[in-house]
Amino acid sequence: MINEQYKSMLGAKSVIRELSEYATARGKEVGYENVFDFSLGNPSVEVPKEFTDEMIRLLQEEDTMTLHGYTPSLGNPLYKEEIAKSLNERFGMNYGPEHIFPTTGAAGAVAHAVRAVTKPGDEMIAFAPYFPEYGPYITGAGCKLSVVPADTSSFQINFDKFLEMINENVAAVLVNTPNNPSGIAYSTATLQRLADILREKSKEYGHNIFLLSDEPYREIVFKGADSPYVSKFYDHTLSCYSFSKSLSLPGERIGYVAVNPACEGADIIVPMCGQISRGTGHNCPPSIIQQAVAKVCSLTADLSVYETNMNIIYDTLVELGFTVVKPGGTFYIMPKALEEDSVAFCKKALKYDLVFVPADGFGAPGFFRMAYCIDTEKVERAMVALRKFVKEEYGK
Questions:
Q1: Is residue 395 classed exposed, middle or buried when 0-12, 13-18 and 19+ CB atoms within 10 A define those classes?
Q2: In DSSP terms, which residues pair with 240 in a beta bridge?
Q3: pTM score above 0.85
Q4: Rounded to the nearest 5°, which phi and psi values hold at 157?
Q5: CA nearest neighbour of 186 among 160, 220, 155, 165
Q6: What are the two backbone dihedrals, phi and then psi, of residue 217, each rounded to the nearest 5 degrees?
Q7: Where are the beta strands (DSSP E) in 224-345?
Q8: Nearest to 310 by CA among 376, 227, 387, 366
Q9: Three-state SS for 75?
Q10: 157 HSE (CA, 13 A, CB side)
Q11: Distance CA 28, CA 242 (A)
């Protein structure tokens, strides 16, 4: 029989993907350069030359079986060694290769981490605004997802609500910083308080509460932002990373889980991830991508355009009277809509070829997300359209 669970999910299409498809279709009518598509978070900068050079070198010089053969089930040793070395040098950690598990992007990393530290029936907590795909990752592992309402004044953690919701059934807490969709980076004070609460509650409940840190935007941090490395604050942390944004490689699907060496089960979680892969058909990212990224894992693409775009958009939003918290990183910004119904607001914007995403699905009703990973010239033209939209529809 057809699986009814997955059949029921067919009607729950991603709003982001639907809007991106709309923008593509509209672009065929009026020219895509005239559609101001802020829907999809697809990196817009070139990959580092060093990555391209390494791919060419590998293809020209290395043995084909080395390049294209199976990797060990727990990943390419060189990749694991270089990731551990990079994290240690940059963040003062003491990872070994045995603490690194290669995955197909941050999505694969989070999905593995969830299964490694929970059992069916457990509860996990995430903080709004949050990436809606957390739902399938967590419920697919047989767990319950509880979402702490957002503190819309700052988009830091709403600790009052968190303390009301945490209970002895919570096996893990999931954070995302810098955050999709708000662009906010959790501060040192926020992460310190979170760690203190987790230590206190772990002691009270008689079991460690794990912290999963989803951090694919870790390298996109703007001037003056306080965005420390999450695993420095709490021993029982699994960091989930992707090179999709830092190296502009989203289609290569390459990331990792990094298990804090002080974490409960640090010596077995990576081997456990290998067993999780057996049950999910994951079986490691492609061999050649692991080898290429190993050589450039401490580098980034030129990410400066994202801060340039953010400042243009933020200044315009403030000028037009929007309520908006200035991002500390990523390539997202999440203003409050100019009416209570953000879905209606975004539909009106489409008349001006402005494609925004209502943030209701991110746990922030009344807000909308703009993904500004587009050319700066197009951002500047989009602000002309935004001014026209606001003036004609809202009289501002």
A1: exposed
A2: 214, 257
A3: yes
A4: -70, 135
A5: 155
A6: -100, 15
A7: 237-242, 255-259, 332-333
A8: 376
A9: coil
A10: 26
A11: 32
pLDDT digits (tens, 9 = 90+) for 204-214: 999 999 999 99
What tokens appear for 244 in the block?
Answer: 């999709």
Evaluate whether 45 touches 247 at the Cβ level (below 8 Å).
Answer: no
Tell me the helices (H) and strands (E) count for the chain, helix number first. 14, 12
The one-letter amino acid code at 124 reads: M
The per-residue pLDDT for 355 is: 96
| Cα–Cα distance, 293 to 64 (Å, whole number) | 17
Alpha-carbon gap, residue 293 to 264, rounded angstroms: 29
What separation in angstroms does the CA of 266 have from each of 78, 110, 134, 200, 219?
Answer: 20, 16, 23, 21, 25
Model confidence pLDDT, tens digit, residues 165-183:
999 999 999 999 999 999 9
Cα–Cα dist 147/170, whole Å: 12
Task: Give the 3-state secondary structure of residue 105.
Answer: helix
Token couple for 117: 């530290």
Q: What is the DSSP letter of 367?
A: B
Token pair recorded at residue 73: 């089930």
Structure tokens at 376: 């700066």
